[in-house]
Amino acid sequence: MPDTPIDERKFTDREVHEILKKAVARAPSQALVQREGLSLAELKAIGEEVGIEPARLEDAARAVALGGSNRGSRILGAPTVINFERKVEGELEPEDTHEALSLIRRTMGLQGEVSEVHGALEWSAKGELGERYITLSPRDGTTAIHGSSNLSNAAILTYLPTGIVGFIVSFAGLVRFAKTGSEMGLILFFAVLPIRYPILRTLFSKISRSESAKLQQVVDELARLTEGSGD
């Protein structure tokens, strides 16, 4: 209620996010000013104050730190190859393999195929959008977890058909202008491709972000499962 004193009011989740956003924008942390950054431990301490699970905050921090390795193509608007990798203490127990595969299939939304190469467990799947690989490689009491997606097919399916149609329409507009002097033909030539390109770029970016989020989730949850295996 507007008349409720500020120190007695209860704020919604949306309002909490907005308050924190404004507070950081207007008054940056003294730690940021003095040391040009915060450690993961300090971020976890701050997250604890606002009810964010340390594990989730660590996942988010890792995603930000790895963001540079999954830079998008300037032309396509997003990366066609996505990679996430973690190395954790512990090895997956045999009885936990089924749970790990269920986790992968549920999150990625694909059945895929499973193989074992030199002691490493690999799940792979090929679909309309491209190829996905998730590998768990145990060694000397640790496990390297690697997930990758190749979205080249998705890029082709997104850009090529519509691009061809756009080119044909644009070319037809140019021919019409050349033959009849129609201004509409000239408009079609200059407008169709420039209008379509940003739309296609946005569409492919959404596909890539969705794939990246799923892949990161799988790698992070497999890491937690491996670390807790055998407990």
Question: Which descriptors would you attach to this protein?
Answer:
231 residues; alpha+beta; 5-stranded antiparallel beta sheet; 17% strand
List the helices and strands and how they pair.
Blueprint: H1 13-26, H2 30-35, H3 40-49, H4 54-65, E1 81-89, H5 97-108, E2 113-117, E3 120-126, E4 131-139, E5 142-150, H6 152-180, H7 183-228
Antiparallel strand pairs: 1-5, 2-3, 3-4, 4-5
Helix pairs in contact: 3-4, 5-7, 6-7
Structural class of the secondary elements? alpha+beta
Per DSSP, the total helix count is 7
Distance between the termini: 49 Å
- Please estimate the helix content: 55-70%
Give unreliable regions as ranges.
none
Please provide the count of β strands: 5
How does the overall form come out from the CA principal axes? flat
Describe this structure in words.
The chain is α+β, with helices and mostly antiparallel strands and 231 residues long. Helices cover 56% and strands 17% of the residues. The chain is built from 7 helices and 5 strands. The chain has helices spanning 13-26, 30-35, 40-49, 54-65, 97-108, 152-180, 183-228; strands spanning 81-89, 113-117, 120-126, 131-139, 142-150. A 5-stranded antiparallel beta sheet has the order 1-5-4-3-2, with helices on one face. The model has no long low-confidence stretch (mean pLDDT 75).
Summary of the model, kept short:
The protein is an alpha+beta fold. The model has no long low-confidence stretch (mean pLDDT 75). The chain has helices spanning 13-26, 30-35, 40-49, 54-65, 97-108, 152-180, 183-228, and strands at 81-89, 113-117, 120-126, 131-139, 142-150.
